[in-house]
Structures are given as C-alpha cells and as structure tokens.
Amino acid sequence: MIKRVWKVIEQFHFLLFCLLVLSLPLILRRFEAGDYYLSVLVLAGISSIVVIGLNLLMGYAGQISLGHAAFFGLGAYSSGIVTIRYGLSPWLGFALSIGLNAVVAYILAEPILKLKGHYLAMATLGLGMIFLTLFSNLAITGGSEGLSVAKLSILGYVLNSRELKEVNYYYFTWSIALLLMHLALNLVNSRVGRALRAIHASEIAAHSIGVDIAKFKTQVFVISAVYAGVAGSIFAHYSTFLCPPDFGLTQSIRLLTMGVIGGMSSIWGAVLGAAILTMLPQLLDVFAEYDILVYGLVLILAIIFMPQGMSQKISLGWEKLTGQGSQGS
Amino acid sequence: MKFADQLLQYLINGITNGGIYALIALGFTIIYKSTDIINFAQGEFVMLGAVFMSTLYNRAHLSLPVSFGFSVLAVAAVGILMEVLMIHPLRDGSVISQIMATIGASIFFRGSVMLIWGRNDLFVPFFSCGQPYRFFSAIFDRQYVWILVIALISMGVLHLFYEKTTHGKAMTACSANKKASMLVGINVQTMVILSFGLSAALGAVAGGVLAPFGMKYDSGVTFGLKGFCAAIVGGLGNNVGAMVGGFVLGVVEELGAGLISSNYKNALSFCILLAVLLIRPQGILFIRSGERV
Q: Could you say which DSSP state residue A249 is in?
C-alpha cells in the first residue's frame, strides 16, 4: 500500500508541486505576517526563473556564466523603459525584454562560448561589468539614481494594487515560473537535453558523434538569457524601482550560489536553491551583522560537502525512504 | 594646463595604478600556474593587507615599516590557511565549484572584516610627508613614488626568487608539469601552499602601499577585478605578462578616463579584457595557445 503511495507521488511529483505552490497562499493567509511571507515567495519565484535558465546553461551544458545579472537587468530595464519612458503597455515590455535578450545573447554567444573554463568565466564576468556600467551611466536607465516602474495591470486591473497585492502577484509570478519549469523539465529530457549533457561530458566526444556544439551552446545561452529577461520584467513591475546595484556582480554571484546550493544539474535544484537563498536572509536575521559571514561560509561548506547540491541529497534520501533505486525527483 | 601636461599627468597616475594592478595580477598568475584556479579572493588579500596594517599601526602602535612587514606575513598565513582548508579538498573538483569556492572565500573575508572592523575606512599615515614632487608640470604624489618603488622592488624580489632559489625553480617546474616534478622528488603540495602564501603576500604588499588612501571591507573587489583584467591582458600564467598587463591596463584606463569619460573607466578595462579574450586569449605578449576549442 505504502509503496503505491510513493509511486503515485513519484509519478505526479510535478503536479503535486504545482498544487503545493497554488495552495500556499491559502495556508499563509492564516498567519499574521502572511503577506510578508508571500512577498518573500514572489522573490523566490523570480529568482527560480533565472536560476532554472542558469542551470540549463551551467549544470546541463557545463558553460559557466558570471554575468547573468546583466540579462536579468536587461529584462528589467526593457520593461521599465517601455512603460515609463514611452508609456506603452507592459506586455510590450515583456515582449521587448524577451526579444532583446534573445538577440543580445545570440550575438554574444558565438564569440563568447568559444572560450572554455576559466576563460569563459572571465569573459562573462567582464560582460556583466560592462552592462552594469551602462545601466549606471546611460540617461535612459536613469543612471545611478534609478528608474521607477509602473505596477502591472491586466486589462485595466492593477495586479499589485493595494489590497490583494501579494496574493495576485504571487499567482502571476509562480504560474509563469511553473510554466517555464515545465518547459525546462521537458527540454532536459529531450534530444536537446541529451546533446547538452554530451557537450558537458566531453565536447570532443560530442562533436565526433555529430552533435553541433556551437548550435546547441548558442541555443542554451539564448534560452537562459530569455529566462533571465522574463524574470527581470516580472521583477521590474513588482519592485517598481530599479537601481543598478541590483544587476551587478553581487547579483550574478547570488544567482550562481542558488544554483550551486540547490544542485546545478537539476531543474528542481534551481527552484530549491532559489527558495533557500531567498529565505535564508530572513532566517539570518537572527545572525544580524554576521549575515555576510554566514553566507560565505554556507557557500564554501556547500561546495566542499555537497558538490552536487541539495537536490541530489534529497533524491538519494527519497530513494532510501522508498527503498528503490529509481530516478526519483 | 596644456594638453601635453595633462597627458603627462595621466601617464604618471596610470603607471602608478599599473604598479598596483601588476602586483595583483602577479598574485592571480602565481596561483593559476600552480593550481589552474583563478582565485577570486585575490582582491580581498589586498584589503586584508591594508586592514591588518592599519590595526598594527593604530592599535598595536608599531612603526609603519614593522606593521607593513607583519601584515604581509599575516596575510600570507591567511592565504596558506585558505589553501589547506578549502582549495586542497577541492583539488579534483570542477572548474565551476572551484570558482564558486574562491568566491565564497572572498565573501567570507569581507564578512569577517566587516564584523570585526566595521564599515568605515581604515587609514595609516602617508609613508613620508611633505609637498608632492613636481615632474615637469605634472604632480607626483609622494605616496605614488612609494607605491612604484615598493611594487618594483617586490617584482624584483619575486623574479630573483623564481630564478635563483631552489624553491622558486621547483615552483616553475610544477607549473610546467606536475607529474614530472613529482618524479624528480618535488613536493607539489608544498609548492601549491607556497604559491598561495606568496600570492597573498603580494596582495598584502599592494594593500599596504594603498593603506594611506583608506580601505574598508569591500574595497578589495574593484582591485581584484582590475588585477584580474591585467593578468588576462598580459596572458594568464605568465609573470612577465602579468606585470606588463598591469602597467598597460593602468595607463590605458587612466588615459581613457581622462580623454573620454571617467564614468566609463571601469567598463573600459572590461572592454579591453573582452577584446583580449576574444582576439588574443594568449595575451598581448606571447604566442601561446589559449584554452579554446
């Protein structure tokens, strides 16, 4: 009987996760600080989207990016500029954010992804810093003074207006996050996913069996940039204020850390890592001044003792619990 | 000021910055040669050097040269600890996890310094007081002279170490071929530890000469990134390249800031970094194969 339950859970784990996500606001409503928790979860959802894209690039294709905050920022500023500077529909902002990220990533992918290992890390870091300098100096982004962004409205209904602000935006963010998660889960189990893993394992071997390395690398780079752009747009309308430090090296590192802690070669790991690291600062309130210290320590210890991330530990634990050697979640 | 005078001033500032960048780039290079790891905590060694020095001078009331020397030794010890506790366990890890680990270390150093010393700038007095020197029509700050002299001396000492001592030669051998070095009886692990100590010490020297300008917990990041650009520009894994890269970057950056716009000063270094990576990943100096497909 219990084995059957495990099996059902395993088979429908994505569906069960969706149910959990959808029912969380109903549970949190009972708490006094429910809105606050929801706002943390909105940010976790936004980060999840970026980290899912990042994990596709790093965990599956094995290409490091130390500049992903640039794409996040490009998306956020696209939305901000379209709605504020030109007064156009936010949906146009979303479209521009996706289009711009895809085009920029496509142009950059070819030369950048020729580099490997540390050289790629440095090049992406450099790109991130160049974008940060642009965000902080261009007139159209508001420079270091920042840029205000309008709230998001659908058919005249302002999503994050006063009363149901967090709940509405929670459902908006997480439905997009779940959709993109579903797409990514399908992608990694498809032909493309297998090609990416082959590239990760050995570029030469992948090439010799006919995998078009440049094509797949470019594709996954574009996909991960688009994920970051979508997240950026959602973030722009949620925070309603953009300032350059949000899109700098620190942010890139924060996103990477989420991937590392959750587990880079797993889509679930991305969501797990994003959720943990978004909530961690709230928990670290206990440590007050120590928070950066603890953060650095957590990162080092995670890399030394859980190089595959938490998601792998959990799936191993799950196999032990159910007493079977199947793939788990 | 006439244009030529301005140019001279930019050049002087650029060469001085270049000296600092060269020291930091050397630090990157030494560790990269011995472990194939880019140490993203290199800038934090600079910061630690300045912070330790200011503590020894202001709190322990030691003289300037003594606090300088002790802070260099202390930071070298930190570098060695970092190798033993963190890099060694990860020696077979993936590039991504090694990069993330050194980033973790840099966050940890920043956090510790913020916790112990607070968020304010820490200072030591200028090494010598008096009017700045005048070089034709340009102003040459006395501390700039100290920076250049100490940077050049450190580079000279490093060069002698590599060329004349057994340990230095053993380190060169290790970076050329680890297995062959082991076969001839070199203790590779000792050399790796030594390279972390040396690299941290160089960072601390840079931090020490910069200490009079003030340094706080997060000041190291920018220096680390610049030194990192310099190391690439000169060709990663090459001591001479690191030094040349440092001076080239310092001068180009200062000229760019002066002649184009100081807002884009940082972006300029990274544009140079990208250009070098894409066009000549082996660096501007030598013809060696970079790691490309």
A: H
**Which of A66, A256, A292 has the CB atom closest to B114's CB atom?**
A292
User: Is B275 inside any structural domain?
Assistant: no
The reported pTM is: 0.88
Could you tell me if residue B246 is inside a domain?
no
Query: What are the extents of the domains in chain A?
Result: 2-246
Other CB atoms within 10 A of residue B253 CB: 24
- Side-chain half-sphere exposure of B111, counting CA atoms within 13 A: 19
Q: What is the ipTM for the molecules in this complex?
A: 0.84
- Per-residue model confidence (pLDDT) at position A202: 87
Confidence at residue B293, expressed as pLDDT on a 0 to 100 scale: 37
Residue B235 lies in a domain: no
Q: Say yes or no to pLDDT of A2 above 50.
A: yes
For residues A278 and B239, what is the distance between their CA atoms, to the nearest angstrom? 41
A296-315 residues touching B, CB cutoff 8 A: 296-297, 299-300, 303-304, 307
Domain limits at B96? 15-220
Highest mean pLDDT among A47-51, A203-207, B274-278: A47-51
Expressed in angstroms, the distance from the first to the final Cα of chain A is 20
In the predicted model, what is the mean pLDDT of residues B210-237? Answer: 90
Share of chain A above pLDDT 70, in %: 93
Confidence check: pLDDT of B100 > 50: yes
B173 found inside a domain: yes
Residues A223-229, mean pLDDT to the nearest whole number: 96
**A–B CB contacts, 8 A cutoff, strictly below:** 138
Q: Which CATH architecture does the domain made up of A2-246 adopt? A: Orthogonal Bundle (1.10)
Q: What is the pLDDT of residue A161?
A: 63
Helices marked H in chain B: 3-35, 42-58, 64-82, 95-117, 142-164, 166-176, 178-183, 188-210, 220-234, 239-259, 265-279
Answer whether residue B291 shows pLDDT above 70: no
DSSP category for residue A284: G
| Structural domains of chain B, count | 1
Residue ranges of A 101-130 with Cβ closer than 8 A to chain B: 111-112, 114-119, 121-123, 125-127, 129-130
Closest residue in A to B235 (Cα) is: A119
Q: Which residues of B touch A260 (CB under 8 A)?
A: 96-97, 100
Closest CA to B33 of B242, B184, B244, B269: B242
